[in-house]
Amino acid sequence: MDKISVLLIGGGGREHAMAHALSRSPMLATLYNNSANPGIAEYAHAVALNEKHHADVVAFCAAHDIGLVIIGPEAPLVDGLADSLRTAGVPVFGPSQAAAQLEGSKAFTKALCDEAGIPTAAYGRFADKTAALAYVAHHGTPIVVKANGLAAGKGVTVAMDVAQANAAIEDCFAGAFGAAGAEVVIEAFLDGEEASFFALCDGENVVALTSAQDHKRAFDGDQGPNTGGMGAYSPAPCLTPALQMETMERIILPTVRTMQARGTPYVGVLYAGLMLTQTGVQLIEYNCRFGDPETQVILPRLKSDFLELALQTASGGLKNAAVQWHDTHTLCVVYAAQGYPGTVKKGTVIQDVDVANSFENCKIYHAGTVLNDAEQLVANGGRVLCSVGSGASLARAQYAAYTGIAAINWPEGFYRSDIGWRALT
Ligand code: AMP
Ligand code: GLY
Does the Cβ of 294 fall within 6 Å of ligand 2? Predict the structure, then answer.
């Protein structure tokens, strides 16, 4: 088997979990990563590469004989990094700029759903404030107002009354989300349980991965502000095999076929945010990359070689790919800096991560940490650590994850104490 060197773009908990999975592959020669994440540094050579400078990334790949680039976050995908690399002949795990529109523009995805007959909430699309306000007045509440573009997870308002919906519209058109809010999508409120589903696509062939559920609110009981995700677990019990089949047939496959027919094939992982409603599975949104923290619970369950799958995805080779999973459940708890998702203090010292990592069935991924001048591990972001527990049941995975959290000594951090409640009660 030929070994290949890999460049992994991104420096969060998701990329730490990816680096860990790649390190288990017998196909891996050398792993490079463009971050200062001390967790990733255990598996990768840190390189000072700005992902916004495409020519530098392309030159690095040529100089280091990179056989695959894996792009973790959405911003470089929406920015066209995958296109620059493919043009230079470098295989990439991650969609082109045109295909990343599935995450980069809500209006794009809604139009694709119309074209392909994919079940999703009824909607209107507005570049004009007066028309948007009139739509809300006509349809009433609850209703959902969304900035069209990437707004770092903050552009969505689920409005329970008209005043709230109107305020969200005013905010968007007043520039609260910059260019992302220049257009607004307003859609019907979907009632049900939310779950996520992931599939690999090589442009033509699709392989189903698995499901997960995350907790987006900051505080226990799903209260408080929306965050990037405070915890997750996989698989999601509510997404039964029948519902997964429905998701593939009615949502994922029509999307991939439509993208291919348009001449903008989708290559990478397609992450579907779903609502399980009384009338079937509906698409809430697409992401064009793995989830964070969903990746931290998905990849530890993967028995197949992640590098091999990523390479097959990048090179049109998924036709005969088979994905195998360990027979385990995983659950992760995010340890965030106090104040997240608002302003947080950086530089607070974190101790005993090694103690947590020494427990069987527990792994700590670094999301926002750095080593200070005294070589101490310190917080360097909002979401800082992610404790992943695994076990034969979800309850055991939850226990293992919280045992890891309890071992860590970080007075300036906070976490939710009820990750998994929906599936466990
Ligand atoms: P998004 O950024 O599109 O994932 O939206 C963030 C969150 O808003 C989702 O995870 C849902 O909880 C909620 N949401 C978005 N669209 C709808 C909808 N049409 N009906 C109900 N909730 C929604
Ligand atoms: N956890 C949500 C996301 O990655 O978008």
Answer: yes
